[in-house]
């Protein structure tokens, strides 16, 4: 079909060459002489047409779809026409009476070039105009931004009649852009005008299309947009730097991560690569939320072998298939094993002798561990101790514990058990060639069982959203961000450190619930209710990242800090672990009291559930 169309274009170009000559002759000679001169000049016209067609063919002009032609194609057309124009003038001197012919040879060649260019531009305008008319039937859309990303988006929308958007205007805070038109669309106001403009113009959807903006300002604008009750979408900024990306295909719903004011992470890849490249790396709990993302990130740094160790086979199997597809050259072994099984761990360490261990295996759900404290001791404390002993015994270079902010002044069993894990790490370091360290951070968005997936399910069910306390706050971080910073912190480890990640500002869970309701296109407390249920056993109103006695110092990375190790005697640690091990099958109250003896900062309320 394109070949047929291009033949028609070629025939039109030939006719335009003859038409240009006719117009030129009519302009420079009396009308009575036009027929005679035109007939006499037919050989020249034929040669001129041949020159134009030949040069345009060689230039690839007839392989272009002019409805979607860009700047490069039009520049190529101009160069081709200019070359043909010059050659046509030179050919004109070959013919009889060159001084006579030159007057209209010049005009004829110029007109031929102009008509050839104008025809293509007319084709583009004609079809674009059809698209613009059709666009009035799409969703009435307000675009946030008038920069390069927004321009690319407008171009895509204008060129694709199948996209369901009719852009009513643009929003930009730059005073110099106010009331200007871009691709036929007017800048109708600034961010403070969004709500008013949505009402005035009957906006159905808002698309955020700004690529160069701070996380805080982005979150602020998106919050305003979601407050209108309109459907809000976003074009990721990365797409603006990729020339062959259709930006309209990158449009997605905004998610809660977009509203958290988290700046992008900049990694120092060199120390991470030095730490992991060519090494045998083990990730315990590798099928979990954090563990699986650690595996994805580690695979990027070309480990000699990656070992995924987990007790749960389903998620681990899915991860194995994903990594095999994404990293076909990855040397990957997946092992089903429990960190509680010391004999199995020794067998694995004896066989693989891992250089680096990321220990992410743990029970992490606070309410569940309140009612099964013995399981928290067995899996978190004894499991960590088993893996740490194997790392020491089999000469691993580095052992990194994934810890939690709930280990700081814990009020629940899970947090207290992780504090004991930190004690193990800091004590093991003193008598081992293995470098032991821990990385402590808060909640991760989207992890299994976290508040975000729960809120999404509650919204889908029509509510209510359940929040334990109106004032409860938590630190949040995305899973990829947490995994990246864990790898970065691990590369800084010298032994005994507890690295603390910068979690940003704490987020009110009640405010988070309201934002998620708005994101779904509903109004909080009108369309979907928020219900306050009361604090659960072991739950704190706010979390801390550091104990007073730990102190804090910086690292070369602005989002990673290190706490000062607290002295713990090895003999005391061993005695404490034995004490905890001896009560794992006891009643809940006995276990809690024993934990409190081992972790002096642990404060608990007796569990009233029968």
Could you walk me through the main structural features you see in this protein, from its secondary elements to its overall organization?
The chain is an alpha/beta fold. The chain folds into three domains: 2-132, no CATH class; 136-254, Rossmann fold, CATH 3.40.50.720; 275-447 and 471-503 and 544-598, Rossmann fold, CATH 3.40.50.720. The chain has 20 helices and 22 strands. β8 (280-284), α10 and β9 form a beta-alpha-beta unit.
Low-confidence spans: pLDDT under 50, at least 5 residues? 238-245
Secondary structure category: alpha/beta
In CATH terms, what is the fold-level topology of the largest domain? Rossmann fold
Helix content: 40-55%
Biggest beta sheet attributes: 9 strands, mixed
Total number of beta strands: 22
Task: For the record, give the distance between the C-alpha atoms at the N and C termini, rounded to a whole number.
Answer: 77 Å
Summarize, please.
The chain is α/β, with parallel strands linked by helices and 610 residues long. Strand 3 (181-182) and strand 4 form a beta hairpin.
Write the topology of this structure:
Elements: H1 2-28, H2 31-40, H3 42-58, H4 71-92, H5 98-135, E1 139-144, H6 148-159, E2 165-171, E3 181-182, E4 185-189, H7 194-201, E5 205-208, H8 215-226, E6 231-234, E7 252-253, H9 269-276, E8 280-284, H10 289-299, E9 305-310, H11 313-326, E10 332-336, H12 342-352, E11 356-359, H13 366-371, H14 373-393, E12 398-404, H15 413-428, E13 435-441, E14 443-445, H16 451-460, E15 465-467, E16 473-474, E17 476-478, H17 479-492, E18 498-501, E19 507-508, H18 509-519, E20 530-532, E21 553-554, E22 560-563, H19 570-582, H20 588-598
Parallel strand pairs: 1-2, 1-5, 2-4, 5-6, 8-9, 8-11, 9-10, 11-12, 12-13, 13-18, 14-17, 15-20
Antiparallel strand pairs: 3-4, 6-7, 16-19, 18-22, 21-22
Helix pairs in contact: 1-2, 1-3, 1-5, 3-4, 4-5, 9-17, 10-17, 12-14, 14-15, 15-20
């Amino acid at each position: 079909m394109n070949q047929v169309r291009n033949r028609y274009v070629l025939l039109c170009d030939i006719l335009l060459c003859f038409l240009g000559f006719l117009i030129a002759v009519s302009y420079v000679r009396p009308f009575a002489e036009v027929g005679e001169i035109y007939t006499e000049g037919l050989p020249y016209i034929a040669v001129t047409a041949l020159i134009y067609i030949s040069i345009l063919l060689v230039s690839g002009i007839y392989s272009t779809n002019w409805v979607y032609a860009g700047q490069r194609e039009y520049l190529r057309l101009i160069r081709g026409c200019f070359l043909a124009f010059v050659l046509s003038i030179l050919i004109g001197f070959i013919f009889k009476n060159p001084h006579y012919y030159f007057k209209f040879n010049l005009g004829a060649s110029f007109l031929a070039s102009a008509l050839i260019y104008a025809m293509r531009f007319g084709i583009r305008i004609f079809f674009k105009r059809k698209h613009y008319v059709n666009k009035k039937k799409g969703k009435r859309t307000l675009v946030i931004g008038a920069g390069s990303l927004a321009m690319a988006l407008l171009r895509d929308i204008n060129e694709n009649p199948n996209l369901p958007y009719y852009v009513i205007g643009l929003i930009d805070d730059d005073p110099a852009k106010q009331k200007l038109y871009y691709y036929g669309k007017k800048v109708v106001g600034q961010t403070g005008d969004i709500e008013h403009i949505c009402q005035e113009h009957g906006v159905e959807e808002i698309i955020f299309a700004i690529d160069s903006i701070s996380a805080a300002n982005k979150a602020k604008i998106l919050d305003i947009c979601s407050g209108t009750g309109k459907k809000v979408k976003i074009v990721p900024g990365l797409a603006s730097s990729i020339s062959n990306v259709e930006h309209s295909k990158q449009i997605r719903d905004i998610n809660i991560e977009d509203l958290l004011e988290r700046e992008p992470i900049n990694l120092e890849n060199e120390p991470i690569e030095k730490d992991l490249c060519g090494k045998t790396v083990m990730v315990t709990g590798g099928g979990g939320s954090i563990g699986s993302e650690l595996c994805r990130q580690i695979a990027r740094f070309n480990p000699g072998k990656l070992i995924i160790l987990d007790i749960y086979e389903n998620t681990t199997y899915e991860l194995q298939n994903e990594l095999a597809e994404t990293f076909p050259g990855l040397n990957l072994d997946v092992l089903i094993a429990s960190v509680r099984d010391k004999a199995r761990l020794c067998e694995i360490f004896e066989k693989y002798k891992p250089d680096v261990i990321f220990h992410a295996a743990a029970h992490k759900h606070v309410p569940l561990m309140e009612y099964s404290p013995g399981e928290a001791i067995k899996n978190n404390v004894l499991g960590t101790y088993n893996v740490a002993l194997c790392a020491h015994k089999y000469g691993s270079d580095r052992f990194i514990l994934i810890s939690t902010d709930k280990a700081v002044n814990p009020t629940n069993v899970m947090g207290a058990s992780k504090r004991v894990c930190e004690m193990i790490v800091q004590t093991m370091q003193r008598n081992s060639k293995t470098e032991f360290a821990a990385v402590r951070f808060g909640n991760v968005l989207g992890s299994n069982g976290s508040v975000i997936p729960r809120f999404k399910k509650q919204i889908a069910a029509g509510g209510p959203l359940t929040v334990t306390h109106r004032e409860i706050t938590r630190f949040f971080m995305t899973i990829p961000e947490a995994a990246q910073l864990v790898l970065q912190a691990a590369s800084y480890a010298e032994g005994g450190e507890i690295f603390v990640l910068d979690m940003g500002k704490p987020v009110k869970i009640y405010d988070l619930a309201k934002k998620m309701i708005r994101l779904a296109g509903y109004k909080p407390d009108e369309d979907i209710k928020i219900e306050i249920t009361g604090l659960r056993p072991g739950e704190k109103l706010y979390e801390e990242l550091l104990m007073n006695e730990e102190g804090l110092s910086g690292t070369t990375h602005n989002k990673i800090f290190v706490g000062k190790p607290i002295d713990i005697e090895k003999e005391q640690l061993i005695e404490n672990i034995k004490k905890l091990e001896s009560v794992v099958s006891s009643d809940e109250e006995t276990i809690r009291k024993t934990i409190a003896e081992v972790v002096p900062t642990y404060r608990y309320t007796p569990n009233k559930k029968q």
